[in-house]
Amino acid sequence: MRVRAAYVERSTGEILLGPPKSKAGRRVVGIPGAIVPALSEHLAAFVQAEPGALVFANETGLPLRRSNFNKMSGWPHAVESIGASGLHVHDLRHTGNQFAANSGAALRDLMTRMGHDSERAALIYQHEARGADQRITDAIDFHVQAERDQGDDGMAGSLVPAG
């Protein structure tokens, strides 16, 4: 998916299409294959067949307003049906960013995917990544066990001096 522009709803109620909030907001973001079938189904059922049509729009094809998003999208019903009452649509972005951080991606790659200019926001997700220390510990344990399994016949790896 190519992000080139974003809608912003002004305090006057006017909705404007313009550049993303930051330079980093212009980016290409991969879509996981696991959601492609549901996305294709949504496109076929709800998206107008014309260039520039919005993937998520109101009944006339215009951008959804924050004030009527829940009603127009059926969001409360959807989250209740999966037992996730209280889930907000922005929580999906947070969850996706958390999954990205859990992948072990480098900080710069996370920043690019998330559209962040500063490291601060991306670092939040890296610090929240659960299990990273356990994966590191498991990798060290695996290496030590491989050394033990080699016995006196040789080393599975070599020592590397620090500095």
Shape: elongated
Estimate the mean pLDDT confidence.
84
In angstroms, what separates the terminal alpha carbons?
43 Å
The helix tally amounts to 7
What portion of the residues fall into strands of 2 or more residues? 5-15%
Task: Outline the low-pLDDT stretches.
Answer: none
- Note the main sheet: 2 strands, antiparallel
Structural class: mainly alpha
- How much helix is in the residues? 40-55%
Task: Write out the strand line-up for the largest beta sheet, numbering strands in chain order.
Answer: 1-4
Extended strand count: 4
Task: Write a compact overview of the structure shown.
The protein has helices spanning 36-46, 69-73, 75-81, 89-102, 107-114, 119-128, 132-150, and strands at residues 2-3, 6-9, 15-18, 27-28.
Overview of the structural elements:
The chain is mainly α and 163 residues long. Helices cover 45% and strands 7% of the residues. It contains 7 helices and 4 strands. The strands form 2 sheets. It has a two-stranded antiparallel sheet. The protein has a two-stranded antiparallel sheet with strand order 2-3. A hairpin with a 5-residue loop joins strand 2 and strand 3 (15-18). Helix 4 packs across helix 6 (119-128) and helix 5 (107-114) crosses helix 6 (119-128). The chain is elongated and about 70 Å long. The relative contact order is 0.08.
